[in-house]
Amino acid sequence: GAVVSQHPSRVICKSGTSVKIECRSLDFQATTMFWYRQFPKQSLMLMATSNEGSKATYEQGVEKDKFLINHASLTLSTLTVTSAHPEDSSFYICSAAIGGANEKLFFGSGTQLSVL
Amino acid sequence: EDKVVQSPLSLVVHEGDTVTLNCSYEVTNFRSLLWYKQEKKAPTFLFMLTSSGIEKKSGRLSSILDKKELFSILNITATQTGDSAVYLCALTQGGSEKLVFGKGTKLTVNP
Questions:
Q1: pLDDT band, very low/low/confident/very high, at A100 (cuts 50, 70, 90)
Q2: Which of A6, A41, A44 comes nearest B101 by C-beta?
Q3: Residue A106: closest CA among B41, B82, B108
Q4: Residue B99 touches chain A, beta carbons under 8 Å
Q5: Per-residue pLDDT tens for B17-68?
Q6: Bond from prior residue into B111 cis (ω within 30 degrees of 0)
Q7: HSE-CB for A59 with a 13 A CA cutoff
Q8: Is the pLDDT score of A98 beyond 80?
Q9: For tag attachment on chain B, is the N or C end more exposed, with fewer CB atoms within 10 Å?
Q10: B45 to chain A: which residues are within 8 Å by CB?
Q11: Closest-CA distance of chain B to residue A107, Å
């Protein structure tokens, strides 16, 4: 079946550094990918919608200069957390849908970010 | 403000028990409701519901939507330890692929 690969699965970094997370659709092309954040015991919150070849669409309250999204190809979207701070520590997860259909939405395995 | 409320937040049962998970919602321009199972990291798709009263079934899992009372239930019969996971309910609204998630129900099935 379709697979979305997310890397790295876990990252620990110092405050002030930038962290890049990759999301790849392995056997299908994804014109749209979604980035979510999940704090402990909270629901998945959509951060932004990543569109291939154009600017990402950010949800209200998400700083676009803080969370840089690049979707340069049909199989790769990246999320860069710039100048990370401890409050950015969270579980980040991407998803992509085949044909834009929600029932064919596949999630990556997520990235646990810990900022010291 | 649109919201999705799942209950209970956590549930502990023994193997063989039947469980019912609830998801109620208040959203404008409802389009579909989806259930996901999140075991360790990546949620996996279970069901998508768009019409009231039509049960969807997959093995021991089934789900139904009530658009009048604005809720859905997910039933799991003859639970197994492998059913232990967080079950997420999410909604989509007309014209958008955005998913609005509830906080999930953490199910623990003990042997």
A1: low
A2: A44
A3: B41
A4: yes
A5: 999 999 999 988 898 999 999 987 788 889 999 989 999 999 999 999 999 9
A6: no
A7: 15
A8: no
A9: N
A10: 103-106
A11: 5
